[in-house]
Amino acid sequence: MTPDSSRVGFPDSAAETGIFGDVTDIRPLLDKALAGERLTLDDAGVLLSSDDWTSMVKVGHELRNRRHDPAQATWTAFRVINYTNFCDVDCSFCSFKDEIRSSRGYTLTLEQIEAKTVEARDLGCDAIFFQGGVNPDLPLAYYTEAFQIIAHRHGMHVRALSPVELWRLAEKEGISLETLLEVLKQAGLGSVPGAGAEILTERMREVLSPKKLTAAQWCETMGACHRAGLPGSCNIVFGSTETVEDVAAHLGYLRDQQDRTGGFLSFVPWVFQPQTKNFPIRHVMSWEYLRMVAVARMFLDNIDNIEVSIMVMGRELAELGLRAGANDISSIVIEENVLASRGLKTMRAAERFLSEAGFQPRRRTLGYELL
Ligand code: SF4
Q: Is the pLDDT of residue 156 over 90?
């Protein structure tokens, strides 16, 4: 991406955010990670400030190989159904949403959802990722009927609803989060995405998504999901004006939540895409992304799987990510309307990609069971 000075608050260089340039010797921290000792937030800060990324990716890969078969890497096949793009949350980076009741937005009918489900099943997918804007006009029955169709009528796994969608739905229905989750689970909900975290510090939420949940509310919601038997993933989206401290704090929130409720099956690092001109965005260098993968593998010692998103990062970087700490490519994804996709679209392409990257491809479910 070429820097565009018309963008809001575009940093002149990555150095402004303190993300690299530190010359502290990181070997003691790498040895600590290799010895299985837990890294502190300060340790994460030092690693995230260092440009010795080649040392970090070696350790990330070593730790990945201790936890997973070094010869294998995994993939999965799911369809994203973006059921509505009406949303009243107004995240500064989002170009997907439309104003509530505007003439441009859409909400899929149950018939359309069923048709997309059948199409995905016939293509060999075993899961539907059901995600949309926060649309206050949709009643709980819309979700329960959709999940029943996907899960009970067509036997597909349903991963659905980010924390802000769940929180707002519970508020609208006047029920507790726990009750809502139980109703949705009965209807067929199988797991939840960790979407909407972006960067879990109040400073960054003010910049990116002031109307979304606070960091504490996000964690509270994910904890309620985990306790209800609804596992899922978590992520970071970076490449704005976050500082090293913001990133370390974000990783700390995730690790603490995982210690408490243990439902994060995987962690996925993503970078912001230039969807709008309303937020500060910077170019994330390839090595910086690989450093994030490696630091995640070292710091998040209680999360088994690190995914690289081919859809967002592209094939070359995903291939390197599998040598930096990641063990999964988070693909294939059929239909994605929120982000520009650079991803794999067929099962054959996923297997071929992993074979050419030097791994035995293993298909998994969204719940990380090997097929
Ligand atoms: S990112 Fe999600 S919650 Fe935020 S404005 Fe877009 S659709 Fe709404």
A: yes
Q: Contact at 8 Å (CB) between 32 and 63?
A: no
- List the Cα angle 227/229/231 in 5-degree steps: 95
According to DSSP, the residues that pair with 73 across neighbouring strands are: 361
Rounded to an integer, what distance in angstroms lies between the CA atom of residue 5 and that of residue 282?
Answer: 10
Three-state DSSP at 193 gives coil
Over residues 337-362, the mean pLDDT reads: 85
Residues 157, 128 contacting (CB under 8 angstroms): yes
Closest CA to 339 of 265, 268, 255: 268
Ligand 1 pocket: which of 85, 87, 336 to mutate (most atoms <8 Å of CB)? 87
Cβ-contact 310, 329 below 8 angstroms: yes
% the chain with pLDDT above 70? 92
Alpha-carbon span 269 to 111, nearest angstrom: 34
Please work out whether the CB of residue 134 comes within 6 Å of at least one atom of ligand 1: yes
Tell me the CA–centroid distance for residue 87 and ligand 1, in Å.
6
Is the C-beta atom of 164 inside 6 A of ligand 1?
yes
Domain range 15-363, CATH class:
alpha beta
Burial class (CB in 10 A: 0-12, 13-18, 19+), 336: middle
Average model confidence (pLDDT) for the chain?
90
Specify the higher pLDDT residue, 297 or 309.
297
Region 123-140: mean pLDDT is 93
Half-sphere exposure of 139 (CA within 13 A, CB side): 3
| pTM, to two decimals | 0.91
pLDDT digits (tens, 9 = 90+) for 246-295: 999 999 999 999 999 999 999 999 999 888 888 889 999 999 999 999 99
What's the pLDDT band for 23 if we cut at 50, 70, 90? low
CA 279 to ligand 1 center in whole angstroms? 14
Amino acid type, 104: R
The Cβ of residue 218 has, within 10 Å, a number of other Cβ atoms equal to: 26
285: phi then psi, degrees, rounded to nearest 5: -70, 155
Please report, for the chain, the start and end positions of each structural domain, with discontinuous segments joined by +.
15-363
